[in-house]
Amino acid sequence: MCDEHRTEAAPETSVANRRPRSRPCRPAEARRAVERAVSERCRATHTPCEPQALSDALLVASELTTNAILHGGGITDFHVVVEGRGVCVSVSDRSAALPVAKEPVDPQGRWRPGGHGWPIVCRLARDVRVTDLPLGGKQITAVVPLS
Fold first, then answer.
1. Residue 142, strand partner residues
2. What is the DSSP secondary structure assignment for residue 5, as one 8-state letter?
3. Helix, coil or strand: residue 69
């Protein structure tokens, strides 16, 4: 899946298992990865999964991957980790340009379509970091509270 978006080979765990780990290349795949990680963590710790918190994490994953596709030249890496009371979503892309929030109206006073993703990410996540990558591009990491 999405080999054209992969920047590094996935680590192999054994000779028998040589299939590379796939990376989400579409927002729906990123949402499924987040939902799976959060659900597995809730099952393992025998804690309830708060629906609104999961919805927030899914929306952040969707917005980050959509922005990487639309504005960043494609997804080059994706990670999701549930740590403590939050889910950490990291999306890398090919662009070094920083994300920006656009004004909702243009100079003529007309409402612009889109431009809501970055403000949504910043509003829902408790920590958002943008890191330049050594070989170019950037990684955006957002931590969304799960409680």
1. 89, 128
2. G
3. helix
Residue of 99, 9, 26, 27 whose CA lies nearest to 63: 27
Report how far apart, in Å, the C-alpha atoms of 24 and of each of 78, 115, 117, 123 are. 7, 23, 18, 24
Residues 76, 4 contacting (CB under 8 angstroms): no
Q: What does the pLDDT look like over 100-134, one tens digit per residue?
A: 888 888 889 898 888 889 999 999 999 999 999 99
Predicted confidence (pLDDT) per residue in 68-97, tens digit: 999 999 999 999 999 988 999 999 999 999
Full-prediction pTM beyond 0.90? no
Structure-token match 């509270």, residue found: 145
Residue 4: DSSP 8-state: G
Q: Six-digit token pair at 97?
A: 């340009």
